[in-house]
């Protein structure tokens, strides 16, 4: 268990890692915590809702991992430092730190209250900054560890009506890159910083978002499961990479945006207008879970049928491929 | 070569007690108490990590390591009396204590008759699990545990065991197995942390939980993926846990 001397390392065995997860009460954070618990990891769970965290901790223990609960609001730098301290008190080290706490606000730029905009920046960006500061102090001292920041493909291609969210997700990529560069210049080869860029994920983010558009927010298809992101996070611990996109549609969008940035920008705008915001169901204006956490004990999934939709997509793709194969075979026979 | 500083010899407990020392002279003392058949030597890795903040003093109890013992092997009370004697002779009363395995039993026994000598206590892998107090179970568990220890420990332990001799080893093991440590832990009134490695086969989680509950000011910590000899196989983690215990107590006292 001795941390290797500040030499180069190529990831680590996933078993018995000490992992801190912010935003562990719901969505991607929760799914990641559960996936890691399945690999015998020791988890330090943090979010605002203690009740939800307790439930996640129980689920983690049931999967064979260990978990402690340290409720904190990531906008409070001291509270985040305290999370790191508790992790060291209980487990003696931190191998992986996952920043996954995020909120969002939907609304035309001018109509979004400034305090809501500011809150999104505070949670999504300053929350990560606090996490990175607390984590890197420990990881650098150990000479080894992985820091994983969950951004979004919105961090590559922005969306209309969510300028705050998009701004923070771009900023997170810059933050990760900056840290990676600093570590490289300092020769701290054992500490890795990774960014995850998920496409639309089936999480409660959309229901809990602040909304000033007057239209209900839906998960924009194609929707992927949070377990898929969790799987990617596990693979990043084993083999750290700089940036990873989750979801094939996201990957192709990111790629396409390099060749035809103007077109992809307009495509994204159109998609959000048509499919992200409902054209039938109106929604009252509200600040969602920005200032007060949502009620209940949370969940990884958000009820957008990510699993079923993935299965459907796969079936459709398989059917299409099969059809094409049959068609080409019969044409050749003629 | 050994990584320790100038050794310290003190006339106390009816013998010449050897202690290995590492760290600046003006730093607060931290006393390490070894386990069954061991000596100061396996505290080396932990001492190196704590020597910046503390003067780490790893004592050899009479009959172990470089301290000569009486012809008749000492029981737990004999060992704890010797430890107390040495602490008084060197003016180390109230110093922080780190025990590993059977060292925790010696510290618990010291708390029974000389509680004033105890500072904050780190009990790493406290033996002997109440539910497995027999030779075959303990030896089986020790053998299985070696899988989780760092390479090099076996060689070190074998040398210490040979130096101690089979007669003393057997007698000491008998005393340790008969020691009702659960009735003594309540006497450790100072802040204490019980640490175990998550893969430790000798000290199961249920037992450390029981131990922690018995301590008036105790909490527990667990190092994932580590075995029994934390001071050798997971020294960085144990050092951090030790420091955080002392940080807590420091803020209360001063």
Structural class of chain B: alpha/beta
Average pLDDT of chain A works out at: 94
CATH superfamily (homologous) name of chain A: NAD(P)-binding Rossmann-like Domain
Task: Indicate the mean pLDDT of chain B.
Answer: 94
Q: How many helices of chain A?
A: 10
What is the CATH domain class of chain B?
Answer: Alpha Beta
Element pattern of chain B in H and E: EEEHEHEHEHHHEHEHH
Q: What is the CATH level 1 assignment of chain A?
A: Alpha Beta
Topology, number of strands of chain A: 11
Number of domains of chain A: 1
Protein name (chain B): Pimeloyl-ACP methyl ester carboxylesterase
Domain AB hydrolase-1 (chain B): 30-240
Pfam family, one (chain B): Abhydrolase_6
InterPro entries (chain B): AB_hydrolase_1 (IPR000073), AB_hydrolase_fold (IPR029058)
Q: What layout of secondary structure does this protein have?
A:
The complex is a heterodimer of chains A (334) and B (254).
Chain A: E1 18-22, H1 27-37, E2 42-46, H2 50-62, E3 66-69, H3 77-91, E4 96-99, E5 105-106, H4 114-142, E6 145-150, H5 163-186, E7 191-198, H6 205-208, E8 210-211, E9 215-217, H7 226-238, E10 243-246, H8 248-259, H9 261-276, E11 277-282, H10 306-333
Parallel strand pairs in A: 1-2, 1-4, 2-3, 4-6, 5-8, 6-7, 7-10
Antiparallel strand pairs in A: 9-11
Helix pairs in contact in A: 1-2, 1-7, 3-4, 4-5, 8-9
Chain B: E1 8-12, E2 15-22, E3 29-33, H1 44-50, E4 55-59, H2 76-89, E5 96-100, H3 102-113, E6 121-124, H4 135-145, H5 153-164, H6 166-178, E7 192-197, H7 205-214, E8 218-223, H8 230-233, H9 235-253
Parallel strand pairs in B: 3-4, 3-5, 5-6, 6-7, 7-8
Antiparallel strand pairs in B: 1-2, 2-4
Helix pairs in contact in B: 1-9, 2-3
Top keywords for this entry?
heterodimer; A: 334 residues; alpha/beta; Rossmann fold; seven-stranded parallel sheet; 49% helix; globular; disordered N terminus; B: 254 residues; eight-stranded mixed sheet; 9 helices; 8 strands; 17% strand; oxidoreductase activity (chain A); KR_dom (chain A); SDR_fam (chain A); Short-subunit dehydrogenase (chain A)
């Amino acid at each position: 268990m001795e941390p290797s001397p500040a030499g180069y390392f190529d990831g680590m065995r996933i078993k018995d890692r000490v992992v801190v997860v912010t935003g562990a009460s719901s969505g991607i954070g929760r799914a990641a915590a559960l996936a890691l618990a399945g690999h015998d990891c020791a988890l330090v769970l943090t979010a605002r809702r203690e009740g939800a965290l307790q439930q996640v901790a129980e689920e983690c223990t049931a999967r064979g991992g260990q978990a402690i609960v340290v409720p904190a609001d990531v906008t409070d730098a001291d509270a985040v430092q305290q999370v790191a301290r508790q992790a060291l008190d209980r487990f003696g080290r931190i191998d992986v730190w996952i920043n996954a706490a995020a909120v969002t606000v939907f609304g035309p730029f001018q109509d979004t209250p400034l305090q809501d905009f500011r809150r999104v920046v505070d949670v999504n960006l300053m929350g990560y900054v606090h996490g990175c500061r607390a984590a890197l102090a420990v990881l650098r001292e150990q000479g080894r560890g992985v820091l994983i920041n969950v951004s979004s493909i919105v961090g590559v291609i922005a969306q209309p009506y969510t300028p705050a969210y998009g701004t923070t997700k771009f900023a997170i990529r810059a933050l990760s890159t900056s840290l990676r560069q600093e570590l490289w210049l300092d020769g701290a080869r054992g500490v890795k910083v990774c960014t995850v860029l998920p496409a639309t994920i089936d999480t409660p983010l959309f229901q809990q978002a602040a909304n000033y558009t007057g239209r209900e927010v839906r998960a924009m298809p194609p929707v992927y499961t949070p377990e898929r992101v969790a799987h990617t996070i596990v693979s990043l611990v084993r083999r750290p990479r700089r940036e990873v996109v989750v979801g094939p549609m996201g990957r192709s969008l990111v790629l396409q945006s390099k060749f035809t940035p103007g077109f992809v920008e307009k495509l994204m705008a159109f998609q959000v207008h048509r499919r992200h915001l409902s054209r039938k169901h109106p929604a009252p204006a509200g600040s969602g879970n920005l200032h007060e956490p949502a009620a209940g004990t949370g969940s990884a999934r958000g009820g957008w049928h990510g699993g079923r939709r993935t299965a459907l997509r796969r079936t459709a793709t398989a059917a299409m491929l099969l059809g094409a194969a049959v068609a080409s075979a019969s044409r050749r026979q003629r | 070569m050994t990584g320790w500083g100038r050794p310290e010899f003190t006339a106390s407990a009816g013998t010449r007690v050897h202690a290995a020392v590492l760290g600046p002279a003006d730093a607060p003392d931290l006393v390490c108490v070894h386990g069954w058949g061991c000596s100061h030597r396996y505290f080396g890795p932990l001492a190196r990590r704590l020597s910046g903040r503390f003067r780490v003093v790893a004592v050899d109890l009479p009959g172990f390591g470089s301290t000569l013992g009486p012809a008749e092997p000492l029981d737990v009370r004999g060992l704890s009396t010797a430890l107390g004697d040495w602490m008084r002779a060197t003016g180390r009363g109230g110093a922080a204590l780190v025990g590993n395995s059977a060292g925790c039993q010696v510290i618990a026994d010291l708390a029974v008759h000389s509680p004033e000598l105890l500072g904050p206590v780190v009990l790493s892998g406290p033996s002997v699990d109440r539910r497995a107090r027999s030779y075959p179970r303990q030896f089986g568990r020790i053998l299985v545990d070696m899988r989780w220890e760092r390479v090099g420990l076996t060689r070190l332990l074998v040398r210490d065991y040979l130096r101690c001799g089979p007669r003393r080893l057997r007698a000491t093991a008998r005393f340790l197995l008969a020691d009702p440590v659960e009735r003594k832990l309540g006497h450790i009134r100072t802040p204490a942390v019980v640490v175990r490695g998550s893969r430790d086969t000798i000290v199961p989680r249920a037992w450390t939980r029981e131990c922690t509950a018995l301590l008036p000011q105790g909490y527990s910590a667990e190092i994932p993926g580590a075995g029994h000899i934390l001071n050798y196989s997971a020294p960085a983690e144990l050092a951090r846990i030790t420091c955080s215990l002392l940080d807590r107590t420091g803020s209360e006292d001063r």
